[in-house]
Amino acid sequence: MKGITIKFGDVVANNNVDFDLLKGEVHGLLGENGAGKTTLMSILYGLYQPNAGEIIVKGEKTTIKSPNDAMELGIAMVHQHFLLTPPHSVTENIIVGLKSRGLFLDLASAEKKILYLAEKYGLKIDPKATIADLAVGEQQRVEIIKALYRDIDILILDEPTSMLTPQEEKALFATLQSMVKQGLSIIFITHKLHEVMEASNRVTVLRGGKVVGTVKTSDSSESELAKMMVGRSIIESVEPKASAKNPAILQLKNVSALNNAKVKFLKDLSLELRKGEILGIAGVDGNGQAELAEVIAGLRKVQSGEIIMDNTAITNAAPRKIREWGLAYVPQDRLNTGLILDYSIAENLILDRWYKDEYSGKIFLKQEKMKEFAEKVVTDFEVKTPGINVPVNSLSGGNLQKVLMARELARNPKVLVVHNPTRGLDIGATEYIHKQLVKQRDNGVGVLMISLDLDEILTVCDRLAVIYEGKIVSVMDRRDANVDDIGLMMGGKVAVASEGKK
Amino acid sequence: MSVLDVVTQTRNKLRDVKFFVPFASASLAFVVGAIILGATGVDVGKAYTIMFEGAFGSAFGFGDVLLKTTSLLLTGLAVSVAFRCKQWNIGAEGQLYMGALGGTLVGISVVGLIPGLAIFLGIILSFIFGAVFALVPAVLKVKFGVNEVISTVLLNFVAFLFISFLLHGPIKAPGFNPYSPEIGNASQMPIIFPGTRLHAGIIVAALATVGVYYLWKTKIGFEIKSVGANIKAARYAGMNITKSVLVTLAISGGLAGIAGGMLVSGVQHVLIEGISPGYGFIAVIIALLGRQHPIGVAIVAFFFSVLMTGSETMYRSLGVPSAFSMTLQALVLVFVLVGQLFVVWLGKRKVGGAR
């Protein structure tokens, strides 16, 4: 790809980008969110047309107008979010969209080919299994086989590890190696440094839509790549504090609750959060994290068990009451739950306190007070915005999260629950949020940090707990934490993990 | 140039388009209307001239425009209050009829009262009748999860038939027609421009417009519009969804009720079966086109009443069927909605790539 430029309106998403992929290599495409990685690959896959530049595949200049064109050239892409039909079998999902001869699908020969491919690349899969029954890692294998099935030479993987456990991640990297050995070329989009180091032969780093450089992985280092990626070094780890002597501020005792599908999803979960600590909840997505946060906030009914905050039972109390008793909560869905996107900063900031005398008289809201509060937040939290009256949907993700954090912290909470607080944020914003959390901890607030990003938990938390299938399977101090064990526990292998310790 | 600048610039451009598109769309609707008129053999130029003259050519005509605006504005506000809370109240027509009943009951029972008080009482009772009738679907929704679209639509017929029943029996005035007795003089809205049918109700409608504008700046208004803007966020922030739904529909039904009460006190002076030509239904269109903003609703209500009044003149002078008025209203709706989609599409094209 040479001189690729693409604009969306006035925004230049890719600016004169040169990118080359050699046969038989894993090429990492590294950059922060919004650096233009996915856009560049979407151009290669025919989803977008560039405004300028050319694409040369196997020595020939081509235009790729659609994913079909891309397939014909032997290019396939596995998206971050899988495009599979859950009730259908693996085979059906793989052959979907392909032309077949005759009236009936030839599932038997398709299965044969799938098994052959699985064997060849070390991708264990049962062609007859139903997608809905498969773990995330297995679903990803299906997506990869789906691509291989179409006889491709170039495979694009968009953030392939975002949903995987450390073990699944390792298995994926092994697969990548076996694929390049067979002559495939792979482009691996990620923003995680260690993945690039582990899995790629060369790396191209993008920043703000431009190429910062392409280097051989073996000639580089994590810190060098990090500098290229963000223009400065990576997040520093926070020194953990011992909290063993601190009194408990939030206790969950054998709490059970249903998920949205009315299935019992939290199973006798018990947990204790102490004053002045950050307790991290690690786990693979969908093991009860959202449900856990919601039962604490009073947004989900507790079936049995008890939740106590600062000696007050808050089980199944109204959300407003729980907040008044001292909870602040930053939900993971900041766009649709934490904030109202059509509202201004000022309006979003009083969303939880509009009824208080401070912000409203008998009938009318106090516009002046709202304005004051908003201006204070914008200054104190360094929110980048054209003004306090613009709808927050014109703010970037990091600034949105600052507004949300500001509102929650202004409650002077006893307990702060944050769920994936830095997901999708760039390093600057992430560091800022982390600092705020640490400041709360140092002020004696109990901070419960639920995060899918294990690195984040290991960077910030004082203690951490692992959640698996609606239960806390282990709690430990961060000093004693061992990534491999945590990985195993996140994948449900508690026994193996404890054996490993002996 | 920073990302923020880009965002603001794009937004500004969009605002311009947003302003321009609805007018262009409405004009296109008139063009298509002209084609339809032409196809039926009517002189299009003459027809539109007569339509315009009917609405603006005489004091009486313009008085009628404002008279219809009164009803359309109140019902339009009623529906838009509900829509702002994402409560799809399609029952404004029924609530209007119940309000008309409330106003009538006051009018025929407090004959001896001083005029101002009698009118005031009439308005209050028509509000209450409309509000209570709208609370039926509200309670059904919060207690049993009954979809308000269906319940409000169906309750319209309950209202029509209930009024019909009353007019054929319990409150029927002596005589042949199914009319209620005439309301007392004290309860009749004064005409504010001699030689027209325009009564003081337009002032009530104007006050209601201001009221709705300020409603969104009140405590309860903020809660209601937050529930409408994002129910998840509202619940998370500790807002009371049940209360919001109930209050919203009560206000909505009440406003429609006032529209009904004033059709009796200002125009007919008796309650009759077909007292509204479907104001409560047109109100849905008005609320959509006016984007649920009181000023937008006022503009659209005025525009639609020009259309309705002008079409009546067209019918009288040229024999163009009155259905053409509805055709034109529908065309305006379709074109303006498509125009809005067009704006959204433009917005996606411009902003979508920014991430």
| CATH architecture assignment of the largest domain in chain A | 3-Layer(aba) Sandwich
Q: How does the helix and strand content of chain A classify structurally?
A: alpha/beta
> How many structural domains in the coordinates of chain A?
3
CATH C-level of the largest domain in chain A: Alpha Beta
| Mean pLDDT over the residues of chain B | 89
Supply the number of helical segments of chain A.
18
CATH topology of the largest domain in chain A: Rossmann fold
Please explain how this structure is put together.
Chain A is globular, with a radius of gyration of 25 Å. Chain A has a six-stranded mixed β-sheet, with helices on both faces. Chain A has 502 residues and is of the alpha/beta class. Chain A is built from 18 helices and 20 strands. Chain A has helices at 37-44, 67-72, 90-95, 107-121, 136-149, 166-181, 193-199, 222-230, 289-297, 319-324, 334-338, 345-349, 367-380, 397-409, 427-442, 454-460, 483-490, 494-501, and strands at 2-8, 11-17, 26-30, 52-57, 60-62, 75-78, 154-158, 185-190, 202-207, 210-216, 248-258, 264-274, 278-282, 304-309, 312-313, 327-330, 415-419, 446-450, 463-468, 471-477. Chain B has two domains: 1-42 and 324-355, no CATH class; 68-319, ABC transporter involved in vitamin B12 uptake, BtuC, CATH 1.10.3470. Chain B has helices at 3-39, 44-56, 59-84, 92-109, 115-144, 148-168, 201-215, 219-229, 231-236, 241-268, 279-289, 294-318, 323-351. Chain B is globular, with a radius of gyration of 22 Å. Mean pLDDT of chain B is 89; it is low at 351-355. Classes of the chains: A alpha/beta (502), B mainly alpha (355). At the A-B interface, strand 1, helix 10 and helix 11 of A face helix 1, helix 8, helix 9 and helix 13 of B.
